[in-house]
Amino acid sequence: MSDTSSSRPFFSVNDLHVHFAARSRLFRETPPPVKAVNGLSLSIEPGRTFGLVGESGSGKSTVARAILQLVDIKAGTITLDGEDVTNVPSGKELAFRSRVQAVLQDPFSSLNQVHQTRTIVGDAITRHFGVKAGADRDNRVSALLDEVGMSPEFLDHYPYEMSGGQRQRISIARALAVEPDLIIADEATSALDVSIQSQVINVLKRVQAETGVAYLFIAHDLEVVKHMSDDVGVMYLGYLVEKGDAERIYDGPAHPYTEMLIASIPMPNPVVQAERRALRQTFGTQPGGGIAEPPSPSNLPKGCPFENRCPVAMDICREEMPEPTPGHHGGEVRCHLHTSGPELGGESVVHFIESQKLSSPAGSGSAV
Amino acid sequence: MTGATVASGPEPIEAPLESAAESPRRRFWRRMFRNPLAVFSMLWFVTLVVSWLAPDVLATHDPFKQDVTLQRLFETPSADHWLGTDQFGRDLYSRVIYGAGFAFRSIFIAMSIAVGVGVPIGLFSGWKGGRVDRAIMWVNDVLFSLPIVLLAMAVIIVLTPSLTNAMIGVGIAMSTRFIRLTRAVTLAEKEELYVDAARITGISTPRILTRYIVPNLLPALVIQAAIISGAIILIGATLSFLGIGANLDDPDWGVMLNRAQSVFRQEGVWQIVPAGMALVLTVLSFNLLGDAIRDALGRDAGNNALTVTKRVEVAPAQTEHAADAVLSIRDMDVEFPGQGGKISEILNGVSLDVRAGETLGVVGESGSGKSMTMLSALGLTPAPGRMTRGSVQFDGRDVTNLSEAEWAKIRGKDIGIIFQEPIAVLNPAIKVGSQIAEPLRIHMGMSKADARKRAAELLAEVRVPDPERRLDQYPHEFSGGMAQRVGIAMALACEPKLLIADEPSTALDVTVQGQILDLISEVQERHQMAVILITHDLGVIAEAADRVLVMYGGQVMETASAHDVFLSPKHPYSRALLETMPQSHDGQGELPVIAGMVPSATAWPTGCRFAPRCGFATDACTSSMPPLERVADPAQGDLVQADLIRCVRHSELGLVGGTA
Q1: Which residue on chain B is closest to A163 by alpha carbon?
Q2: Ranges in chain B annotated CATH 3.40.50.300
Q3: For residues B291 and A251, what is the distance between their CA atoms, to the nearest angstrom?
Q4: Are B399 and B410 in contact (CB under 8 A)?
Q5: Measured between CA atoms, how close is B406 to chain A, in angstroms?
Q6: Is the pTM of this model over 0.90?
Q7: Residue B555, beta-bridge partner list
Q8: Residue B535, SS3?
């Protein structure tokens, strides 16, 4: 169940904007800022997972960095347990860090190569609980290692002595060390092999079941996000174009971009994949077979940024950015189709796209 | 649901690998002691340190004791005075030994100031960035451009002439070098993910700087310090030589040279030799030490580059090639020499066939040997590895022992290659049009104008909009998807018979991936090429491949039609891989996992390489390596490609997919 608006959410981001200013140059016009995140809102309850998907350049990692106080926020608020944590003052930073932790993407560079596991995980314990380096701290680190499925022998291992999957477990143990309420996992499994990825996903899910930690799970892999998440948000060029219950979004996306993403997932079954190919080819090609490229985030169009790749775009899509409207999955969708034109009213867009495709064969455009 | 291949439920605790990688520290010392110049400079350094801390151990005489008889002045080497005597009859050998103390004192004073001032300022400047950084670096650059000797003289003028005061000046001047270095490293390191991770953990900034950044800065500092130490000794000697450094009686090398030059016309050149040689050897050894440390810390040479091993005759394969295959590999072994003469077998008994118009998908996790198979088949085994067994046939011709010159005529012409990172393959400084035209001019002998025309046609063929204009653009003006289209155009340029695509869509967004795969199959159909598609993504294989080769641990585990591999996988590994994919798993429960991890090439398990992770493994699996067998299939005649499998239990297990 999604949160209801009457009760205050445990963790929420409201109308977040993050812009990166281009550096000003002498005698030249300052380039426009890159609008990395534009008006994003989401909320997460304890013990639940919000999955954020999007392609490279969609701004999903910037959302993580904004929440983690690593980039400046242009507008919007972030609240945790009723407290404003948009810009945490340095005096309250430690308290904030003890509640919000992260597991970052690259298992090679997110651990300091010069430290052993006992220091990597132990530093967090020292910082937050005042336990000095020694046998006591090592015992606590061992317990955390056990929680992520690793033996205490790894205490004196350096990162270069461990595989990618093991390193990612160390990252999880480090995040767990401070007993946080929220862990932001930014592409935490993306760099891992399939067989290792499933191990790490299971560790994350088991930890959540045991501790009730909430996750903001950010990834480009839709299938992994679907498996991890209760709610899902889809980002495109800084906009959250759709959010809602995970199962229901995957079964019936209300935004054409979400449908494009789902149609693009290659399924490990040649028979199924042959059927899906036709739907996938509906997207991304312009009439006549040209390739439509997404616009630059420093030069977004005034209308919907997905308009040029959308197989069912209308005139209004070029003119104005749609506002969020309620979707059938209990969340929201930002697409004109729901308020003008066919007025889908928040329902799934799948049947509409398929009916449009049948009536206008120009969409597939693979005529040779 | 058999599900026994993969362990469900709570997974086993992971224990460390026995053969952990060599620690950087051990590797460092191993390399240092293997380098003769490094050994020389370390020995010299140790001698100097002993001369400095305990000069009497080495010295034979009191360095200040004059010969009051005035009988033994300006002597050349003798049994009593090993390096002769100076104008007061003092023992030159002992004076040189004592001189090391002066050299080290100079280094100590100047280096403490240079490092003590330079490193904190550099850390601060690099960490702060922005205006503060620019202001500091501006001042630093001005100081940097002043001659060091001049700065040292300025300090001496303000204070009093002495070696200590001179070295304070040198230290201040040298701190600019350390500011630059520290700031550059800090700027780079603070962008590293581990610094973000430390901030997220709540580690304070001073602690991040001292505990996280400084240790990563140390190697660069040590190298810089070694080289600068040589410079400091020279500057100290220069100042002493000019008479504004050490006292005129001190056994300082610069002072000794000063004295020697005033008399060498009358007394011969020998007077210059002891102090001069000490100075030259010391400065040289410091510089060599710096170089040696840098080399020892660096990465293995030839690790990244495609340095091709010298070819050796390869033992022929036992089995025959398929007559109709465009590329056919039989029983290929590739070995890499490891530490201490150990051999790592990267590939073992790899066989494959790919026919015209067919797409062979090669799938495996990292370290499975899928990319190595292709490199070795094309005569590109990276050094120091080499193919030791097997045979390769391309287009009906045996190419196993082809020379590099002969290969160059085939690669890029009859075999096109598409890489994972299209942008990385393109030269950023050359227009895209020229890069596409190059193989056309080399292999097809086209004129410049013809090649350009053909390049535009090729871009149009891979559906790059506005090809004429795009020809004159540089690679950075292309998105990842567009750059990969250029990569495909380049691979197609000479109408190859075989196209090898190594993870062609892995670096691309999922919405672009499909377009690229569509494009590859489109051009394949048009040109009736054979395509080998290498990827770790089973979904990509399912989308594009006709036949599939599953690799694990440098071996072929299974080859069969795509339909069979996905819908009725016979090998437990193929099946386990499919089951661990989230796509194969509906609902929210735990995913099936393959326990443990991919074994390393230096320590393959005995018997079947997948056995330690396999849910079906028995004693038979771990006792001897299972052969790659033909799957008996009476429905298929001999002319049809045979399915192969490497599993002793495959017929008994009868793994037939539940998904079909």
Answers
A1: B597
A2: 314-355+365-403+551-583+590-660
A3: 62
A4: yes
A5: 37
A6: no
A7: B552
A8: strand
For residue A326, what are the domain limits?
Answer: 252-363
CATH 1.10.3720.10 residue ranges of chain B are 33-61+76-297
How many domains does the structure of chain A reveal?
1
The first and second tokens of residue B644, run together, are: 């192969």
* Chain A residues within an 8 Å CB radius of B479: 293
H/E segment holding residue B156: helix B148-158
User: Do A109 and B21 make contact, defined as CB atoms within 8 angstroms?
Assistant: no
Is A109's Cβ below 8 Å from some Cβ in B? Answer: yes
- Residue A90 is assigned to a structural domain of this protein: no
3-state secondary structure of A263: helix
Phi/psi at B352 (5° precision): -160, 160
User: Residues 6 or more apart from A158 whose CB is under 8 A from it?
Assistant: A113, A114, A115, A116, A117, B23
A290·B465 Cβ contact <8 A = yes
Q: Does A251 touch chain B (CB under 8 A)?
A: no
Probe site for chain A from B19, B185, B194, B550 (most A CB atoms < 10 A): B194
The secondary structure of B581-616, three-state, reads CHHHCCCCCCCCECCCCCCCCCCCCCCCCCHHHCCC
- Residue A267 with chain B: CB contacts under 8 Å: 539, 542, 583
8 Å CB contact of B584 and A171: no
**Structure confidence at residue B4 (pLDDT):** 39
Residues of chain B with Cβ-Cβ distance to A113 below 8 Å are: 194, 216
Q: Residue A1 pLDDT > 80, yes or no?
A: no
Closest residue in B to A364 (Cα) is B515
From residue B134, alpha-carbon distances to A144, B51, B128, B184 in Å are: 44, 44, 10, 12
Please give the helix or strand (H or E) that residue A351 lies within, else none. Answer: helix A350-359
Q: Give the single-character DSSP code of B411.
A: B
ipTM of the complex, rounded to two decimals: 0.86
The pLDDT score that the predictor gives to residue A290 is: 67
The secondary structure element, H or E, covering residue B449 is helix B448-461
Chain B residues whose CB is inside 8 A of the A277 CB are 514, 518, 543
Instruction: Reply yes or no on domain B314-355+365-403+551-583+590-660 having CATH 3.30.565.10.
Output: no
B139 forms beta bridges with none
Residue B90 has, within 13 A of its CA and on its CB side, a CA count of: 22
pLDDT in tens, A163-178: 888 899 999 999 999 9
C-alpha–C-alpha distance, residues B383 and B401, integer Å = 16
Chain B residues near residue A129 by CB distance under 8 angstroms: none
Looking at domain B33-61+76-297, does it have CATH number 1.10.10.10?
no
Q: How confident is the model at residue B312 (pLDDT cuts 50, 70, 90)?
A: low
Query: Cα–Cα distance between B93 and B278 in angstroms, integer?
Result: 10
B348 sits in which H/E element: strand B343-355
Nearest neighbour of A109 by CB, restricted to B12, B194, B582: B194
A-chain CB neighbours of B597 within 8 Å are 163, 165-166, 196
Whether A155 contacts chain B with CB within 8 A? no
Per residue in B6-48, pLDDT (tens digit) is 444 444 566 655 444 567 788 889 889 999 999 999 999 999 9
